[in-house]
Amino acid sequence: MDRWKGRVALVTGASVGIGAAIAKSLVQHGMKVVGCARNLQQIENLAAECVSSGFSGTLFPYKCDLSIEDEVLSMFSWIKVQHQGIDVCINNAGLALPEPLLSGKTSGWKNMMDVNVIGLSVCVREAYQSMKERNIDDGHIININSMSGHRVVNNTDIHFYTASKYAVTALTEGLRQELREAKTHIRATCISPGLVETEFAYRLFSQNQEKAEATYKSIKCLQADDIANAVVYVLSAPPHVQIGDVQMRPVEQLT
């Protein structure tokens, strides 16, 4: 990770869970990290924690709703002014809403697509343009996907969410191909975790907290730090190594 010290990373959805763990880890490794989310206070608390821990990097909190393109574009403009641009983009932000295909609300479907697919794609485009205009040829774009982007589980609550994650799988491979056609050495990677013990299930089952708790008690889940460690592993690979997709499950997870 030495070659990334002092360089700039963007981590979306950095206020809690996986995003917070990734942002903290990169700061610990000496990077300048712009952490964005809708909840600014939680990122500010994390930034203070990084300072008190004596980490060599810095976390810069930024309030942004990824479902609103103008806010995303404003964020990239701010990054350009404050930090010249970004070298690493980690698209972690995402959400799942219990909206089945046969009875779900269109607004919920659109919300998932706006964040999980469109917001991610806007960040990918702007990150690449930021790297290109500064002649950064060793940048890295990492999409935090899900095992739901690789198989369909018989659970009506997450079928539409699953479709959005299949899109991330396709977008990441498409990105890799376009980067090759552009004759750049910028890398694209997908990290696809199985069940991770975060706030995810509590948000998905906000009307049934017992169901959320049962989800995490059923097996020994992955932890957010496990995903952060995977990000460090991917970034630590030699520049000539393209890690396409990291699939990781709890040992006890069946599907």
UniProtKB/TrEMBL annotation:
Enzyme class of the recorded protein, top EC level: oxidoreductase
Keyword Chaperone: no
SUPFAM superfamilies assigned to the protein according to its UniProt record, in alphabetical order: NAD(P)-binding Rossmann-fold domains
Catalytic activity, as annotated: a 3beta-hydroxysteroid + NADP(+) = a 3-oxosteroid + NADPH + H(+); 17beta-estradiol + NAD(+) = estrone + NADH + H(+); 17beta-estradiol + NADP(+) = estrone + NADPH + H(+)
Keywords from the named record: Oxidoreductase
Source organism, top-level taxon: Eukaryota
EC number annotated for this UniProt entry: 1.1.1.270, 1.1.1.62
GO MF annotation: an example: estradiol 17-beta-dehydrogenase [NAD(P)+] activity
Pfam families referenced in this protein's UniProt entry, alphabetically: adh_short
Keyword Isomerase in annotation: no
UniProt pathway annotation: Steroid biosynthesis; estrogen biosynthesis
Role played: Catalyzes the conversion of the 17-keto group of estrone, 4- and 5-androstenes and 5-alpha-androstanes into their 17-beta-hydroxyl metabolites and the conversion of the 3-keto group of 3-, 3,17- and 3,20- diketosteroids into their 3-hydroxyl metabolites. Exhibits reductive 3-beta-hydroxysteroid dehydrogenase activity toward 5-beta-androstanes, 5-beta-pregnanes, 4-pregnenes and bile acids. May also reduce endogenous and exogenous alpha-dicarbonyl compounds and xenobiotic alicyclic ketones.
PANTHER family linked to this entry: DEHYDROGENASE/REDUCTASE SDR FAMILY MEMBER 11, DEHYDROGENASE_REDUCTASE SDR FAMILY MEMBER 11
Family: Belongs to the short-chain dehydrogenases/reductases (SDR) family.
Protein name in UniProt: Dehydrogenase/reductase SDR family member 11
UniProt source species: Culter alburnus
